[in-house]
Every structure is written in C-alpha cells, then in structure tokens.
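User: I'm writing a tutorial on reading structure tokens. Could you give me a worked example: one chain, its sequence, then its tokens, then a sentence or two explaining what the tokens reveal?
Assistant: Sure. Here is the example chain.
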Amino acid sequence: MWYAPGVFAGSLAFAAIFHLFGALFTRPAVVGLLYAFFFETMLSELPIPGTLKRLSLNYYTRCLLYHAGEQHDVPTESSSLFVPVSPTFAWVALIGATVALTGIGMWLFARNEYRDDA
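And here are its predicted structure tokens:
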C-alpha cells in the first residue's frame, strides 16, 4: 500500500509515452518494446554515473518508491549507486511528463487522423 501512489504515477507516465509512440509510429509495439527494454534499462538500471539517469521515467518512479520504503525502514540500494531526487521533484517530473506526453500524443493523433480523411 505504501508504494501504490508511486506505482500509479509511473504507470500513467509510461502509458502516456506509449500513447505518444502509438501516434508517432506505424509499429508502436516494436518501438515501445525497444524503449522499455533498452532505453529505460540502459539509463535507469545500470550504474551509470552522473545525471543521465534523469532522462528516464523509471528513475523518478524509483525515487518515489525508495522514499516510501525508507519511511518504513525497507532497505534500498546504496546511495553511491542510486542518488534520488526529492519526492516533490519526482512527482513534478512524472506528472509533468504525463501531461506533456499525453498532450503531444493527442495533438499528433488528431492531426494524423484529420489528414487521413482528406
């Protein structure tokens, strides 16, 4: 139950980016799988130093989950491997990404559907 808000926010953000892929590409399932298994894995799971991880939706979701776990004494990764941002910034990043990606996806979908009718 502690992790539900973070999981929900991450799920919405991923749904928004997959919606955008559906509006952009003719084979969105392939692009979505490549994104999920390669881009997200490379940026968020591997111990990459620096701030490159902040391009990943998974990073912000993990920040929320780690914060929820720390409040209940659940052991997390070493701070040298994973340096989280504040929960407030993670919420802003996930909500902002969700709104922006959904808006861009809706606009592209409507534009492409309108062109198909002409």
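What the tokens reveal: The first helix runs from residue 4 to 24. Residues 33 and 39 are 10 Å apart (CA to CA).
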